[in-house]
Write a structure and sequence with these properties.
With about 210 residues, the chain is an alpha/beta fold. The chain has helices spanning about 20-25, 30-45, 100-120, 135-145, 160-165, 180-185, 195-205, and strands spanning about 1-5, 10-15, 120-125, 150-155, 170-175, 190-195. It is elongated.
Length: about 210
């Protein structure tokens, strides 16, 4: 698949051949859904917790005699039925992550890239380099190109000046090629890849 390459000033910079096995698949929603669920579950903190009966600070002494009170039988004030008692089957600190094979995650990334190509939301640029780290200059460039909610993926490393200029721009995310992931790709309106990013992704997913 041949695609045009542009510069940041919107000028033409030739074309590039994209691997159909990575950028030309028919996107499957079920695969994308599973990978996104895997990512979101893995990032959950899982730090919610409550005090159980054994964590409460009440005395373990029997609160009143077993028989003759006319009330229900109780052994300790820490029982869940009492105010201040332990919570029964409450949440505990745990990991929400679940397993997903490396091959399946790679397949999900291929389908996410193909989805962007199919939707016409993929842009290939020659490089992501700016002379200085001025946010205003980059903001004007992105506005002129008509990009909104953009994710830019560079090669092994992101240009330092470009990262500096982009870090305060709302709706602009920048990642190195190893940081490319299904969730961030799908939630962007425009996916921008540098030529070095295309090479790195094809090498990673081939």
């Amino acid at each position: 698949m041949k695609t045009d390459v542009i510069k940041l000033d919107a000028g033409k910079a030739g074309s590039i051949d994209l691997n159909d096995a990575i950028f030309g698949l028919e996107p499957r929603a079920d695969i994308l859904h599973r990978v996104v669920r895997y990512q979101l579950a893995k990032r959950q903190a899982g730090t919610h917790a409550v005090k159980t009966r054994s964590d409460s600070t009440y005395s373990t002494k029997k609160i009143y005699r077993q028989k003759g009170t006319g009330g229900a039988r109780h052994g300790a004030r820490s029982a869940p039925i009492f105010r201040g008692g332990g919570v029964y089957k409450g949440p505990v600190s745990r990991s929400h992550a679940h397993d997903l094979t490396k091959k399946f995650r790679a397949l999900g990334l291929k389908h996410a890239l193909s989805a962007k190509v199919g939707a016409g939301e993929l842009v290939i640029i020659e490089n992501a380099e700016v002379e200085n780290g001025k946010t205003s200059a980059l903001a004007n460039t992105i506005k002129a190109l008509g990009w909104t909610k953009v994710l830019l993926i560079d090669g092994a490393e992101v240009n330092a000046n470009f990262a500096l200029a982009a870090r305060n721009l709302d709706g602009v995310d920048v990642l190195p090629s190893m940081g490319a992931n299904v969730y961030d790709i799908l939630k962007s309106n425009t996916l921008v890849l540098t030529k070095s990013a295309v090479e790195a992704l094809e090498a990673r997913l081939s």
